[in-house]
Amino acid sequence: MTQQDAQVGQGGGQGERKLIAISSGKGGVGKSTVTANIAVAMARMGLRVGVVDADIYGPSIPGMLGIAGNQKPAMSPDQKVIPAEAFGIKVMSMAMLSDDDSPAILRGPMVTKYLQMFVAQVEWGELDVLLLDLPPGTGDIQLTLAQAFPLTGAVVVSTPQDVSLKIARRGLRMMQQVNVPILGIVENMSGFACASCGEVTHIFSKGGGEAIASELGVPFLGAIPIEPEIVDAGDAGIPLVSAHPDSLAAQAYVRIAEALVGRGAAHGGLALPFDWQLSDGTGKPADAAPMSGGAADVVTALDHDEIGLMIRWQDGHAQLIGSRDLRLNCRCAACRDEMSGAPILDPSRVPQTITPTRIWSLGNYALGMAFSDGHSSGIYTFKALRDMQSAEVEDV
Ligand SMILES: Nc1ncnc2c1ncn2[C@@H]1O[C@H](COP(=O)(O)OP(=O)(O)OP(=O)(O)O)[C@@H](O)[C@H]1O
């Protein structure tokens, strides 16, 4: 174990604890809101979660979690700071040490020193995940911070505007240069979700976060729509995941949290559950890694183009199944005779241009699919998909 590991491990569980930095190229993109919500989502999964509000210049995590600004931390008998607690999350923030709202004027080395203290000199107890909400930017401070801790990896939050994405790309490159693993990109304020019908309107450009993720070969963790309730929930000190768990944005936060801790993943496959809207790409599950000796019935990546559905399996096998073939292979009671298994669906009634519109996980064994003809009752088991006739793409 390195000295740093030992320091970070002080007062807390070692080994499995994930130390995840949440970063952004510029301020105001919703990084702290993402941190607070994924922390709550992880705590709701039963994980022991801590948050270090490392955004020393604009500490906002305590407010978002309803922790009173004037709540000064107590000290343990061995002179460690006892973190505040809310929603089952332990929290340490600069806001809890400074006396007023004025931003702390600290030089880079001092910031690192404070944060070393927040990570190492706080009575965290046993933790599964410690999230670091970094200050915005891609300068020296972020670089020093990224190197100062044995990070499991970093998440980069961006908004869909070009300028924000360009800065995010710079941040990603910087992390890659200093060998900090990139756990993925989150695109926040990605379209406006209509409260009554759930339809997402893309106010800014669309899909940029995903494009940068694929350009740099890092996972795309998900898109969070603009939801006015997010602001209200943040201001009220009750994060959306707790205030409105059924909202689209809350579900997006939960999926990001699941992807980060590998929950829902079946034996290293896609993080489950997911609900992928193919029209705008929301909810698309992040790719999981193939592995040597991997299973033939575990899906590690899904993609879709004008030809059909690309499925990559854990054993490295890749398959392209035509959209119309998927529809024709539906095994629901309306499409197949339940007793004989003989097709009921008349192929001449299935348009050549049919395409899936939504794909979602069913347990860890199957996919549900909705199609452009309105049909949505088919269950496609992984085994049946693997056995389907397909264009063989490649074996790696
Ligand atoms: N998806 C969203 N929909 C609507 N409002 C949002 C969304 N995400 C964040 N916000 C709002 O945007 C504002 C900025 O969010 P937040 O403080 O999390 O950004 P930040 O990147 O951490 O900022 P800073 O870098 O300045 O600390 C807040 O008022 C927050 O409630």
TrEMBL record:
Q: Which organism is it from?
A: Roseovarius tolerans
Q: How does it assemble?
A: Homodimer.
Kindly give the CDD domains that the UniProt entry links to this protein: Mrp_NBP35
Which keywords does this chain's UniProt record carry? ATP-binding, Hydrolase, Iron, Iron-sulfur, Metal-binding, Nucleotide-binding
Query: Which terms does the UniProt entry file under GO BP?
Result: iron-sulfur cluster assembly
What range does the record give for the signal peptide? none
HAMAP family documented for this protein:
Mrp_NBP35
- Binding-site residues, ATP: G25, K26, G27, G28, V29, G30, K31, S32
Q: Which family does it belong to?
A: Belongs to the Mrp/NBP35 ATP-binding proteins family.
Task: Cite the GO molecular-function annotations of the record.
Answer: 4 iron, 4 sulfur cluster binding; ATP binding; ATP hydrolysis activity; ATP-dependent FeS chaperone activity; metal ion binding
What region holds the Gamma-butyrobetaine hydroxylase-like N-terminal domain? Answer: 303-386
- Looking at the keywords, is Iron present? yes
Name one matching Pfam family. Answer: ParA
Purpose of the protein: Binds and transfers iron-sulfur (Fe-S) clusters to target apoproteins. Can hydrolyze ATP.
What is this protein identified as? Iron-sulfur cluster carrier protein
